[in-house]
Amino acid sequence: MTSQFDLTDEQLQIQEMARAFTADRITPHAGEWDEKHIFPRDTIRAAAELGFASIYVSEESGGIGLGRLESALIMEAMAYGCPSTSAFISIHNMASWMIDRFGSPGVKDKYLPSLITMDRLASYCLTEPSSGSDAAALKTRAVRDGDDYIVTGTKQFISGGGENEIYVTMVRTGEEGPKGISCLVIEKDMPGVSFGAQEKKLGWHSQPTAAVILEQVRVPAENLVGGEGDGFRIAMMGLDGGRLNIGACSLGGAQRCLDEAIRYTKDRQQFGKPIADFQNTQFTLADMATELEAARALLYLAAAKVTAGAPDKTRFAAMAKRLATDTGSSVVDRALQLHGGYGYLQDYPIERFWRDLRVHSILEGTNQVMRMIVGRELTRQ
């Protein structure tokens, strides 16, 4: 009766490979990356050797051609060590997938080989200083000039900004609103591309974040991904998968903190016995575990729907992202509380996860926007 909910042997192998990589290459170093703001490029490139830079890039294009559930398993496993690094790899995968799914053969040949190996890293550029949740109001303008587009504008809060070589960028080529948006691949070294100062963030210290400034950048028209006016649709399709991955990163981080809390409460003695023996502690741990499993089940279901292209895939991706990220933050917060004053210290990993997971309810669409998406689809039925 339960076999329909079990992972396949292949999925279990993928999960175990990601866990082993995390235990070896991420977990032992994540605290230092956070403290010293180290961008672990070598580790990220090592992930590419396992295919983790092209998880759902097609095999025909050189990727490993997996589905969104397999991607969620990988992101969840890596986030057990470092949610920031796992999320960065997720964003690279999103940009690579857009090029593979919608790009012309010329664009694929130009960019995918180096993205699959992570010799070049990719960013996803949608948000602007004046258009966050209202993404369709973006102002970055691309004007056709012969065989090129001339691009001017600014993208804000870009993961990989200043470090990455490739920027999959949403630009306005036509009318106001979503129908006037197109997608261009812009390179770091193109004249007119510059970057703002690195943002000083609460968390996600292992990855760079900066504004991408575009001043009369001449971009070959052949770098158009999809057709003119397809950009907003492409961006939203990318976000379905991105939301699942960010939710998975919250699950992985929260699972780590639950495991840390169980270990700590079994060791910590108060009033002559381990605090794990107190009923209040057991109730708290029970709630954390139950809520985490419920969020995981919804996220895995949503991932299967996105892979299958189900009609309700966007609604389920939004529900799963909202629940997984809210639950993840709540679980980590309670894990910190169970650690007492020690949870507030950098000697323990809990405070790092608390900081890293906080942004997950904001990016890839705020959780308030997730509720809007779900509510809108429910009332249209």
From TrEMBL:
All residue ranges annotated as the Acyl-CoA dehydrogenase/oxidase C-terminal domain in the record: 229-378
UniProt keyword list: Branched-chain amino acid catabolism, FAD, Flavoprotein, Oxidoreductase
The keyword DNA repair appears for this protein: no
Acyl-CoA oxidase/dehydrogenase middle domain boundaries: 124-217
Pfam short name (any one): Acyl-CoA_dh_N
GO BP, sorted A to Z: branched-chain amino acid catabolic process
Family indicated by similarity: Belongs to the acyl-CoA dehydrogenase family.
Domain Acyl-CoA dehydrogenase/oxidase N-terminal: start-end pairs: 8-118
PANTHER family in the record: ISOBUTYRYL-COA DEHYDROGENASE, ISOBUTYRYL-COA DEHYDROGENASE, MITOCHONDRIAL
Entry annotated with the keyword Membrane: no
Name of the molecule in the record: Acyl-CoA dehydrogenase
Residue spans crossing the bilayer: none
Gene Ontology terms for molecular function: acyl-CoA dehydrogenase activity; flavin adenine dinucleotide binding
